[in-house]
């Protein structure tokens, strides 16, 4: 998310990452502009054999990406700073949600996965 000064708008920056060994995540890339206090859902779908470990990363300006949320099994919910994402093995999704976005949510968000058996990271 990126906040426009004095505009009351929040811009979400999303990136589509590649794939590893046939496992992949799909996330729409680009910008999403929202008014402050709007609800947001950032979609993340995955394709994998078995049940990988799923992550949401955040990246603040001029910093390295940091793990924000993590889920290791089906139906597990990750919660951090009023955001949540539920691992859904049936629909192969890990959508990030928050009610009432704020200026402090103005960072870049990445969805990623890790193969639980081989220990490879993908996203």
Tell me what you see in this structure:
The chain has 123 residues and is mainly beta. It has one domain: Immunoglobulins (Immunoglobulin-like). Helices cover 0% and strands 48% of the residues. Strands 1, 2, 5, 8, 9, 13 and 14 form a 7-stranded mixed β-sheet that branches. A hairpin with a 6-residue loop joins strand 8 (53-59) and strand 9. The relative contact order is 0.29.
Give a summary of the structure in a few sentences:
0% of the residues lie in helices and 48% in strands. It has no helices and 14 strands.
CATH level-1 class:
Mainly Beta
Contiguous low-pLDDT stretches (5 residues minimum) are: 1-6, 118-122
Average pLDDT over all residues: 80
Q: What is the percentage of strand-forming residues?
A: over 45%
Domain count, please report it. Answer: 1
The chain-level structural class is: mainly beta
Order of helices and strands: EEEEEEEEEEEEEE
- How many H/I helices? 0
Distance between the termini: 19 Å
The value of Rg in angstroms is 14 Å
Keywords:
123 residues, mainly beta, seven-stranded mixed sheet, four-stranded antiparallel sheet, globular, disordered N terminus, disordered C terminus
